[in-house]
Amino acid sequence: MIRLDKVTLTYPDGDRRLVAVDHAILTIEHGKVLGVTGPSGSGKSSLLALAALLIRPDSGRVVIDNVDTSTLDGDALAALRRDRVGIVFQQPNLLPALTAREQLVVMGELSGPSSRAHRAARRRRADALLDAVGLLGQADRRPAELSGGQRQRVNLARALMNEPSLLLVDEPTSALDRERGAAVVDLVVRLTHQLDVATLLVSHEQSDLDRADAVHTMVDGRLRDDRSLLSRPRREEDACTTDERAHASSAAGSTTHRALPRAERSR
Ligand SMILES: Nc1ncnc2c1ncn2[C@@H]1O[C@H](COP(=O)(O)OP(=O)(O)OP(=O)(O)O)[C@@H](O)[C@H]1O
Predict the structure, then answer these.
(1) Does a structural domain hold residue 188?
(2) Which ipTM value was assigned to this complex?
(3) Which of 42, 173, 174, 203 is the pocket-test mutation for ligand 1 (most atoms within 8 Å of CB)?
């Protein structure tokens, strides 16, 4: 669970301060997707950076799983981010030399013990996550051998490697065509529900947010609760299935949180 409690962030702007996030209030419970949309420059990336604990607010509190992060020093903040937050950036940023499986395993190794048993557990979890995003068959491929949509799905699986309770997704479809983008958003929503994470999905593409549990619009740093999107009828194409989408969806549907092997990190 994440809660932003009247969070404000400003940047230096000449001899003044620019208010990028203005007293933002939001809560995302486990198993829910909150979509945030808004025009360019409205503060969406700044909001994500605050939720990711990459930047401290000027005022207000960011609370993750009942931990008031304003009370934490830099090391504790970094540890909480590593243990509880998964981030899917706009561009996959995969390491060119590593296979899909290795991208995930390396993520687990950054924070976990290095015994043989732990390494085996991480590999099992990596394979289960690749299966959940429909890519187990491509586990040994490097990024250059994957499509854009497949790279973004590896990116999503990697973000879930450390069993985060908060998943932050930044414009996941910006580099993809409509169908591949829809497949990635489908996966984000399904895995949110199945793995019981709290997900903040930022997108300027309103169709990406049709499947969110709630939607807020950001304008000039202010968040507005905008539930009208939720009552919009689903379009035909939202229900359509391309091969990729159907495969991704059914793969995710066959996995449950309990069924996924744990990475066996020491928390
Ligand atoms: N590091 C910074 N220093 C100063 N101003 C910044 C900085 N980062 C962002 N801003 C300003 O803060 C405001 C919010 O920017 P932000 O990137 O959060 O918006 P956004 O909604 O994510 O935009 P986009 O959709 O174009 O990515 C903008 O006016 C931007 O110019």
Answers:
(1) yes
(2) 0.97
(3) 42
DSSP bridge partners of 87? 168
* Residue 113 CA to its chain's centroid (Å): 24
Question: Which residue's alpha carbon is at the smallest distance from atom 6 of ligand 1?
Answer: 11
Q: In whole angstroms, how far apart are CA 36 and each of 74, 85, 165, 202, 225?
A: 27, 18, 19, 5, 9
262 falls within a domain = no
Is the minimum distance from the CB of 178 to ligand 1 under 6 angstroms?
no
**Is 206 close to ligand 1, i.e. is its CB under 6 Å away?**
no
Q: Say yes or no: CB of residue 8 within 6 Å of ligand 1.
A: no
46 lines ligand 1 (CB under 6 A): yes
Measured CA to CA, the distance from residue 211 to residue 37 in angstroms comes to 13
Digitized pLDDT (tens) for each residue of the chain, 267 residues in all:
999 999 999 999 999 999 999 999 999 999 999 999 999 999 999 999 999 999 999 999 999 999 999 999 999 999 999 999 999 988 878 999 999 999 999 987 776 677 778 888 899 999 999 999 999 999 999 999 999 899 999 999 999 999 999 999 998 888 788 888 888 888 999 999 999 999 999 998 888 898 899 999 999 999 987 754 444 444 443 333 344 444 444 444 444 444 566 655 444
CATH number at residue 55: 3.40.50.300
Using CA positions, which residue lies closest to atom 24 of ligand 1? Answer: 40
Residue 174 domain boundaries: 2-253
